[in-house]
Amino acid sequence: MRVSEKIKRVSWLLFELALLVMVAAFGLLTICACFESLWWRAYLVAQFRVQIAIGCALLSLVILGIKKRRKYATIPALITLFNCAYFLPIYFPRASSGTQTESSLRLLQLNVNNLNSNHAAVVKYVRSVHPDILLITELTDEWKRILTDELLDYKHTVLVPRPDTYGIGVYSTVKLSDAKVKYYGSSGHPTIVCKITKLEEPTTLVLTHVQGPVKSQFFEWHKEQLLVMTEELQLLPSPLVVAGDMNSTPWTYLTSELIRKCDLVDSRQGFGLQLTWPAPDYWRKVPVVLLPIDHCFVSPQLTVVNRTVGPFVGSDHFPVFVDLE
Fold first, then answer.
1. Angle at 272 between CA 267 and CA 276, to 5 degrees
2. Taking the domains of the chain in order of start, what are their residue ranges?
């Protein structure tokens, strides 16, 4: 056998071995994600089911192109389908309630980023959308001053600015009542609970920002905050609107349990994943692919007329616009 043929054969074997290693890696990540309730690192892995599914789908196509190895394409294809089961249902529209009303509510949920200095872009976008209610996370004293000065139509507010990333605020053109600032769990991060009357039924609005689970202790705060909030929200009068940066994808067990136990619907239903973090200009600072972590969950009696992800406004998060009736 000539040297060139030996090199070609070895190269091909190495290529096949690399494919095998990648399939095994995606399989192990999928298994790891199934234990998300037991280990905080597994919980982080579970956030990336979309990326695991895409990676395995590409591997399956590559293996299909290798004549002698086509039967092995079944393995990554099965891993793809297993992970897709967690997020593909979000693309199927909700069944219509059969009732329509003339009242509507336009919400804009926006993590402004406490370090974002592009105030003009945020104000310009808010004015262009002109929501009834503006929900802000990462509200600092500077952001509070700018938004209060620039958005004069929003006369009704509940604001909890902080110097860190967990300040929040509600700006509204409609009257807010029974406003409370709650602290779910020991993280000390505020959640705003209030009532709005623009829709036909008085609606309970909840704005929160959940601790990011990127360290063991942070995960404990994240978990506690979501678990306590899940229990507390079940006691609130319906209909509910629960929104904010929850630092978790909707298919992870804590968020999906909140949706199920509180009898809520993900406003994404029928509109797709709508990935919101990190925004493109932060790609080099946060070397991960996009995730849907900015949420708006609603009670079934509320109809989501429209849900869109807004443009880049200087933050590492994209805005989320939701039109309800």
1. 80
2. 3-90, 93-324
Helix (H, G, I), strand (E, B) or coil at 128: helix
Distance CA 249, CA 294 (A): 8
pLDDT tens for the chain, 325 residues long, are 565 777 777 677 787 788 888 999 999 999 999 999 999 999 999 999 999 999 999 999 988 888 777 788 899 999 999 999 999 999 999 876 545 556 789 999 999 999 999 999 999 999 999 999 999 999 999 999 999 999 999 999 999 999 999 999 999 999 999 999 999 999 999 999 999 987 778 899 999 999 999 999 999 999 999 999 999 999 999 899 999 999 999 999 999 999 999 999 999 999 999 999 988 766 555 555 689 999 999 999 999 999 999 999 999 999 999 999 8
Report the distance separating Cα 91 and Cα 87, nearest Å: 8
Element (H, E) at 83: helix 74-87
Q: Running DSSP on this structure, what letter comes out for residue 132?
A: S
CATH of 93-324, one of 3.40.50.620, 3.60.10.10, 3.40.50.2000, 3.40.50.1450: 3.60.10.10
State the angle between helix axes of 3-33 and 74-87 in degrees (0 to 180), rounded to the nearest 10: 30
